[in-house]
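Example record for the data management plan.
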Amino acid sequence: MGAPIAVMGVILPVYTIIDMIETAEKVWSDSCVYAMTGHDLPKTVAHLYDWKRRHDGV
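Corresponding structural encoding:
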């Protein structure tokens, strides 16, 4: 690649820390979305099921 080894020795550890922080943020945001979906989805599904049952006459 043509990059000096000394520069690579500085960039790689810094990039590793940035990558770990980015990964932790993605995991946190995914868990937040899962928590919101898990909280709201059962109520929505139950509401839709009741609505369909009332309107289909079942």
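Summary line stored alongside the record: The chain has one helix and no strands.
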